[in-house]
Amino acid sequence: MIQKQAFHLNFAQGLDTKTDPNQVAFGKFLSLENSIFQKGGLLQKRNGYGQLPSLLSDAPQYVTTFNSDLTAIGTSLQAYSPGLSTWINRGFIQPIFLTTQTAIRNNLNQTQCDYTISSSNVGCIVYTEVNNGVNSFKFALNDAITGQNYLAPTAISDADATYGTPRVFYLAPYFIIVYSHTSGQLNYIAINTNSFIVNAPATISNNYAAAATVAFDGTVLNGYLYLVWNGSGSNGIKGAYVDSNLTFNSLKTIDASHQATRISVCADASNSLIWAHYYSASTTNGYTVKCDLNLNVYSSFPVQSIASTSVATITATASSGLSTLFYEVNNNYSFASIPSHYVNQRVINSSASVTSPVVVARGIGIFGQAFTYNNAAYFLAVYQTSATSSYQNTYFLMNVSGQVIGKLAYQNAPGYVSTGLSGATLIGSKVTYAYLYADLIAPVNKGTNVDATTIPTTAVYSQYGINTVTFNFNTNFQSVEIGSNLNIPGGITWAYDGYQAVEQNFFLYPDVITNTATSSSGGNMFHQLYYYIVTYEWTDNQGNSFKSAPSIPLKVDLSGGGSSNYQATIAGPMLRLTYKTANPVQIVIYRWSIAQPVYYRITSITAPLLNDPTTDSWSYVDKAADSSIIGNAILYTTGGVIEDIGPPSFSSVFLFDDRLWGISSEDPNLLWFSKQVIEATPVEMSDLLTMYIPPSLGAQGPSGALKCGFPMDDKAVLFKQASISYFNGTGPDNTGANSQYSPPVLITSTLGCTNQNSIVFMPNGLMFEFQSEAGNQIWLLGRDLSTSYIGAPVEGLTLNATVQSAVNIPGTNQVRFTMSSGVTLMYDFFYQQWGSFVNVPAISATLYQGLHTYINSTKQVFQETPGKYLDGSNPVTMSFTTSWLNLTGIQGYQRAYFFYLLAQYLSPHKILCQIAYDYNPSIAQATLITPDNFTPTYGGTESNGQVSTYGQDSPYGGSGSVENWRIFLAKQRCTSFQITLSEVYDPSLGVPAGAGFNLTGLNIVIGHKKDFRPIAAANSAG
Asked: What's the pLDDT tens digit per position in 678-734?
């Protein structure tokens, strides 16, 4: 006779998706949904998430808090007002991320470049190179992802490098390089992207009128390359298109009445249109045509799109039946003959209607061609200090509204270009440009010696090389709060002060300051030597005062006469690239003199000189005597304090040592850090405050670039793709001296982290996501610097999903990871158990009012509601699936009689009990259990339909809160069985979804038959 035995199934081990499902240990779960471990061995239902008001029309992708206020970030920044129960739009923001790669470096100088990428991520770069004053056109192939060289730089032997520059297009399976031929032809070379075979040069046109400004352009649409060029003589504007077999279709005359020195061609894919824009320097007029896919010009075109304007270059993009034209206008500062270009924009519609010119931004030129992403137009701009200096030449990615969303190569750009533009390659959410990068060999010294007589000269640069940059609009947002600002990395580093998001510090400092006039009468200045320094200064909504780097000192020598009544007129550039417009930037002038050798502020505080980005320059008449400015504010760099500059693009930011730290997007081996942030001071950064992290850190070879960082105790932990290191100590003072930061120390070179949003601190250390080709895993870096695979039990839920956010929930022992799969993983660090929350489809989560709060992809916002059990309007229900219960061994034979279920009744519910047998997960038995513990309140309705007198189903008491069930197994003789219990909410009960029940455990009654099970002959062999 089989002896019955009882086995207690204790709920104290959580999920296990790592082990073979047939061998998961007794007491662990194969699935465990919507349960928490508030008490050992007890399963309780998690809280629900109540819905807050939905976000505005924009769909942000990231949620955080600032000053304890809920804040959402997307292409706008929104702040939640609990008093008004609504979201408030705080204005524009466009976080993007950029990455760069070196493309061409040698001992020669590159002066122009273009780049495109094939569908197999092969890149082709074409460029102009100068050797001893002689130009040549060259091309090279590389891996667009890794930068590996496929085809070494090769010269185009028959090119006429005197005029124009080459362009490259991808027409699968070929790269088509178009260039001017030595005999005045327009030629091309085709390179097979699969075999890298370079075809012999071929002719496109014999009547191309070459121009130094590049009088041709093209675009690819629907498997055709459309080319438009300026015909020689009076042949007008010509066009042709080529297919993937390199067959050119008949020559077309686009416009017989006009010639061009600048041409821009773009495609409107959704409307099957080709747009061509062209401009003539001799007539200073420009025109636009709209063509079909056979290059037939529509009626009403050409239309004049530029009238009597001196234009340096043009570019255009098209979508939705409209074409947006950008053109760079030559201009000079009003106070000096210094070039100060600006960019205009006009929109041409399908009916040949042209909008009035709109100034996109001043002080910039066009470097890279325009493109359209999500129906918005962008282009790569370049800032140039002046014709004779290049202190701040920088690239900026601009949108059609003139807003800066990316900053690149600060102080290392070439300035305005006069030849061909760099092409934009848009693939999905990423756009790639090639750009020129100057290697600095003698830095600018903007400081002065003790008597302020040292005036620096223009920096000395080596020749230009070529890099590529990729801007990614599909970003993984993050932020940190410090200096009373929310600091957000991206194409630029943003700072949100509760009013609007602006650039951190300033894009530029005042770089061209001049003395336009002096007079020996009308003022109170003494005859002596003076120096002036100018800064841009701005106070944010929190009262923090931001100051730009000081200008280069301007010498004004009034020592030649004997008068005491001098005055001087000082002029300089407006800060034309800035988000700080609603609350204007101040232009602050400081003066030094022989008699008062300290830089004192001379501009008024009560009537300040304000910035106006719609004009190019400002002017100020200084009449003040030295005695009248003593006691005014002094220049903040006095005493050797290092100057502040706008930080570069950061790929990731974190906090350590009361400072903001950022990983440079352009050099991911370089950490930038701010001055120490104290009360009532903003984040202040400088290019003198950086830390280099060697890519070869560790004994096992190169460990790659930095990806993210996080503080832990007295350490800053640095993560790479597959390594972890740390440093500690305290940083330098505001002069840049006395740094005590340690060198980086390697922890491990076998795992790392690339996802800043996955890192979370809990009592045992840092939990983080390790991403590899095998899948994603959650690891722990202990406070003793040991590493452990803490996420092994939920590996089945992490391998194919990415952590969106990680939050340590106060008042609990829980860390919650929201996953891209829509599941939220919960780790209880006291019980060291994992569970999962379902129906929590968060794309980002944070703590708001101490409660877990998340947003989803449809702009909805949810916050945990303690004691409530609804996710919005959906009831929260618990469920679990046990391991396979094989108490006589994996292939043993048992008789399973029944099991007991012990629970505590909390609110009306039903329990669906499902059982599978013999390792077959298909459900073989299902039973719906309806507890009768429901006890109406006094005056409520009893189960018999009568009104309750005492609030119970029986006069003086009910069945109580104990819920005890016995479930018989339909198939008693088995090798194993598996139990799935699911709570079922029944709305017919007429009460809101509640806590349901707490489950204490299962007690299983079983008998041991054999240590092996019978096997049918059909399943036997040997």
From this structure: 988 999 999 999 999 988 866 566 778 999 999 999 999 999 999 999 999 999 999
DSSP 253-311: EEESS---SEEEEEEEGGGTEEEEEEEETTTTEEEEEEE-TT-PBPTT-SEEEE-S--E
Answer whether 431's CB lies under 8 Å from 373's CB: yes
Tokens of 508: 């530029």
Q: Residue 939 above 70 pLDDT?
A: no
| Tokens 């095998």 found at | 774
Decide if pLDDT at 937 tops 60. Answer: no
Residue of higher predicted confidence among 948 and 979 = 979
Q: What residue segments make up the domains of the chain, in order of their start?
A: 4-46+879-1010, 506-629
**How many C-beta atoms surround the C-beta of residue 522 within 10 A?**
11
Written as one letter, the residue type at 448 is T
Q: Are strands 600-601 and 659-664 parallel, antiparallel or unpaired?
A: unpaired
Distances, alpha carbon 171 to alpha carbons 48, 422, 724, in Å: 54, 18, 43
> How deeply is 46 buried, as exposed, middle or buried, from its count of CB atoms within 10 A (0-12, 13-18, 19+)?
buried
- When pLDDT is averaged across residues 256-275 and rounded to a whole number, the result is 96
**Nearest-angstrom CA–CA distance, 919 and 977:** 7
- Nearest residue to 493 (alpha-carbon basis) of 670, 713, 649, 604: 649
Tens digit of each residue's pLDDT (9 = 90 or more) over 524-556: 999 999 999 999 999 999 999 999 999 999 999
What's the rounded mean pLDDT across residues 899-909? Answer: 92
Report helix, strand or coil for 187. strand
CA dist., res. 310 & res. 303, Å (int): 18
CA–CA distances in Å: residue 289 to residues 214, 366, 371, 378: 19, 22, 18, 21
CA-wise closest residue to 64 among 753, 807, 664: 807
Decide which of 196 and 946 is more confident: 196
HSE, side-chain direction, 13 A CA sphere, residue 155: 11
What band does 331 get if pLDDT is binned at 50, 70 and 90? confident
Q: 261, 311 in Cβ contact below 8 A?
A: no
255-to-297, 298, 478 alpha-carbon distances in Å:
9, 11, 51
3-state helix, strand, coil in the chain (%, to 5): 5, 50, 50
Mapped onto helix, strand or coil, the DSSP state of residue 21 is helix
Pairing assessment for the beta strands 586-593 and 529-539 based on DSSP bridges: antiparallel
Query: Distance between terminal CA atoms of the chain?
Result: 33
Contact 682, 485 (CB under 8 A): yes
Distance (Å, rounded) from C-alpha 992 to C-alpha 994?
Answer: 6
Q: For residue 87, give both structure tokens.
A: 């979201």
Peptide bond into 302 cis (omega under 30): yes
- Containing 687, the helix (H) or strand (E) segment is strand 685-692
Question: Which of these, 520, 516, 526, lies nearest to 570 by C-alpha position?
Answer: 516
Q: Predicted confidence band at 995 (pLDDT cuts at 50, 70, 90)? A: very high
Tell me, what DSSP letter sits at residue 950?
S
Beta 925-929 vs 997-1010: how paired, if at all?
unpaired
pLDDT of residue 448: 47
4-46+879-1010 is classed in which CATH architecture? Sandwich (2.60)
Q: Full-prediction pTM beyond 0.90? A: yes
Give the contacts of 936 (CB within 8 A, at least 6 positions apart). 942, 948, 951, 952, 953
Q: Tokens 């003589």 identify what position?
A: 233
Give me the pLDDT at residue 3, please.
80
Residues forming beta bridges with residue 104, ordered by sequence position: 466
CA angle 164, 168, 174 (to 5 degrees): 145
d(CA 556, CA 571) in angstroms, rounded, equals 12
| Structure tokens, 40 | 């050992």
Beta sheet of 273-280, edge-to-edge order: 262-268, 273-280, 285-291, 303-306
HEC assignment per residue over 820-882: CCCCEEEEECCCCEEEEECCCCCCEEEEECCEEEEECCCCCEEEEECCCCEECCEECCCEEEE
